[in-house]
Amino acid sequence: MTHLTVPKTYKLYLGGKFPRSESGRTYPVTDVQGRFLANAAQASRKDARDAVSAARKGFTAWSGATAYNRGQVIYRIAEMLEGRSAQFVELITTTTGAAARTATAEVQTAVERLVHYAGWTDKLAAVFGSANPVSAPYFSYSAPEPTGVVAVFAPTGAPLLGLVSVLAPVLAGGNAAVVVAAEPDACTAIALAEVLATSDVSGGVVNVLTGSAAELAPHLARHADVDALDLTGLDDELAAACQADSAETVKRVYRPAGVPDFAAAPGTARLRAFLEIKTVWHPTGAVSLAAGSSY
Amino acid sequence: MSTAVGTPSEPATGLPPAGADEAALRRFLEGLPAVDPVGLEQRAAGLATRSIKKDSKLAAIDLAIAMVDLTTLEGADSPGKIVNLCRKALTPDAGAPDTPRPAAVCVYPDRVAVAKETLGDSGVLVASVASAFPAGRSSLEVKIADTELAVAAGADEVDMVIDRGAFLAGRYGLVHDQIVAIKQAAGRARLKVILETGELATYDNVRRAAWLALLAGADFVKTSTGKVSPAATLPVTHVLLQAVRDWKLLTGEQRAVKPAGGIRTTKDAIRYLVAVHEVAGPEWLDPHWFRFGASSVLNDLIMQRQAQRAGHYWGADYVSLD
Questions:
Q1: Residue B3's pLDDT is what?
Q2: CATH homologous superfamily of domain A9-283?
Q3: From edge to edge, which strands make up the β-sheet containing A176-180?
């Protein structure tokens, strides 16, 4: 008996659910030869707004979780991705035309990247925080805190590794993300959303929009409830426009210089970009009035 | 069923005379046409899909802000918290001084004085819950004393609760007389009668309770205390709006409606305004005749107002925490 192929409809990932675009629009995703692969949802301005409100809700729980727990959850994403590597290898070879070996290497690096950032979560305070020496009877501590809701524009080129490399550091810092997938890589992005949905990441912590970054970027850059932007996936003109737009609401903006090499060791720039340093001064209390005290 | 399409649900008989006995009240209330719940909910849901955009939306937002009874009814209401709430009412959005002020601040009786003092003659009214709010489970003497306390402290409006236990037991006369007594105790303050529809079980009961309150002299019929879930819903508000509209048709006298509780977003508020316009009529689109009992909705209205004017979405970091 012949099997009739069931093509998949790729929907958005908002607040832990997979809705269609509010606008009802879709766009065709093609494979490397230009053949129809699937219909993906083309997100609208209102979908972006819904994603931001979902992320704001998700942020409360995610930033409130212990660093150790966040590490476990990110590690769980790696586990789930590992189990579904075959699907991702196929998606990467179909959409980019990469050889199976290259695609397998990309998936493996993506899994390793997640494990890498899973390890970071409970070390952020130790590495980026400090006990500051001050010349007054105070303890002064600096500790990193998550920035909030980060709108991430995923890069093209490496459908899975690029996406994981921009998303994982945002999550590791305790932020919630609104990811705008690269337009040709919608299938991989939504497949990753399915991994996230089954790996203890609570709804709203990551939201994935597919469609035109050029359409969505200005709205996200001007949205007052978005705290930071990662412009990695935008071209220079659009990125500059977003930087200008984001000034009104004083957002953190991360824009890498040049084209990042995602296969290389990631460094800490992306982690640090979405952390706020809070410094606390606390009286030491016991000030001795006896002779010999410095105060 | 006539109510399904919004035609007047005229009572089967004429109004009972003032001072009617319990039997006459029962004959009248139980003779009211039954509510068709399917039709009612369908109509409420149908009207809720209406899209209000651009200038109309801005006008609706400003009207909704002017209709808010900014409410805090918590055991933890300190004088400082009341002062904060009143300041919020006086300056809802410091960044946009043209933002209208809400209609009133709604507090417990012992907090009326501090609210009155803060609001002064700004035009923002002070409403006070009274009559053993929220349960209403006390003697009439206590309820009257509670009301007098609020009025003596300067409350412009009194929000009383009906005795739902007595209503559900069919003791319409008792409920009626209590409303009359509290109306008298409230004096010149406008009286809002809270039906607590979440406890009334059926739309028919809601309709009866609304008519009972109107007969007893309620200036407002109000859905809920906000302490019981479900609080205000669109279909229940439809029933109240039908009642005040029919009351006006019968007596020529206009009475007001206040849904309270569960209205959190601008979208919700605008849906209520559409219902007011379509069910009661445009003459009810005025803060004197329609109010929202709410607190968090004010921030959402302010954010939407800013979003409409700035052309981009707004965030909770830009409004006060209350």
A1: 43
A2: Aldehyde Dehydrogenase; Chain A, domain 1 (3.40.605.10)
A3: A206-209, A176-180, A149-153, A228-230, A252-254
State the CATH architecture for B37-315. Answer: Alpha-Beta Barrel (3.20)
Most A CBs within 10 Å, among B313, B314, B319, to test the A interface: B313
CA A37 to chain centroid, in Å, comes to 26
Amino acid identity, position A15: G
Distance of alpha carbon B264 from its chain centroid, rounded? Answer: 15
Name which of A154, A146, A155, A153 is nearest A227 in CA terms. A146
Which residues of B are known to be catalytic?
Answer: 159, 222, 258
In this prediction the pTM is: 0.85
Our measurement of the distance from residue B98's CA atom to the centroid of its chain's CA atoms, rounded to an integer in Å, reads 25
Structure tokens at B107: 């507090």
Predicted complex ipTM: 0.75
Percent of chain A whose predicted confidence (pLDDT) is above 90:
89
What tokens appear for B19 in the block? 């001072």
Average pLDDT, chain A: 94
The residue type at A61: A
- Inspect the interface and report whether the beta carbons of B316 and A56 lie closer than 8 Å: yes
Which of A90-99, B282-291, B306-315 has the weakest average pLDDT? B306-315
pLDDT at position B15 is 86
